[in-house]
């Protein structure tokens, strides 16, 4: 009977210690995340195949999931081909912001993986997002290839007009209308 009593007491003490440890761990975890936290909707964006000289951009959306205002001090890029834009004012807890990344593919060829590092007062330290693309040689003539639509509607529409917009390497957009 004594052994059974001692076993019951030992078991209840171990359960009590485990519960106390879980509560203190939860409090410690909560105190670690107190402060600003930058949380991105996506960590990477793939532009797919583009041509040399194309300029593409993507907006990375984020939210301050912390408890105090988030301040972005700077955004670092791996080379001059990527230009970031970010909010200069503090982002309140629960509010959202965005970082725009503009990538200029002039002088680049092949698979590209550009890392953008966001320096802020986030308790988790610097955050990183990535843009990915595969740069192909520019087609002869300097304009992007436009792949025509396929199917019976295209061959039947002989009097239809089509407008194509081509962004050239000098940044101008040209519109061409064909009959």
UniProtKB/TrEMBL annotation:
Residues 154-172 have a biased composition (Low complexity). It comes from the Bacteria. Residues 154-179 are annotated as: Disordered. Keywords: Signal. Residues 1-20 form the signal peptide. PANTHER family: LIPOPROTEIN-RELATED, SIGNAL PEPTIDE PROTEIN. This is DUF1573 domain-containing protein.
């Amino acid at each position: 009977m004594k052994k059974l009593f001692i076993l019951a007491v030992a078991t209840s003490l171990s359960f009590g210690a485990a519960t106390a440890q879980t509560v203190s761990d939860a409090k410690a975890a909560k105190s670690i995340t107190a402060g600003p936290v930058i949380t991105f909707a996506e960590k990477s964006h793939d532009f797919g195949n583009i041509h040399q000289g194309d300029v593409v951009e993507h907006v990375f959306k984020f939210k301050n999931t912390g408890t105090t205002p988030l301040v972005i001090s700077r955004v670092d890029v791996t080379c001059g081909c990527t230009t970031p834009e970010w909010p200069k004012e503090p982002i309140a807890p629960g509010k959202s912001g965005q970082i725009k990344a503009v990538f200029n593919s002039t002088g680049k060829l092949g698979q590209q993986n550009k890392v953008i590092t966001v320096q802020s007062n986030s308790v988790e330290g610097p955050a990183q997002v990535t843009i990915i693309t595969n740069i192909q040689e520019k087609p002869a003539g300097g304009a992007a290839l436009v792949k025509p639509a396929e199917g019976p509607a295209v061959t039947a529409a002989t009097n239809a007009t089509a407008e194509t917009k081509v962004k050239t390497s000098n940044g101008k957009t040209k519109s061409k209308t064909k009959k």
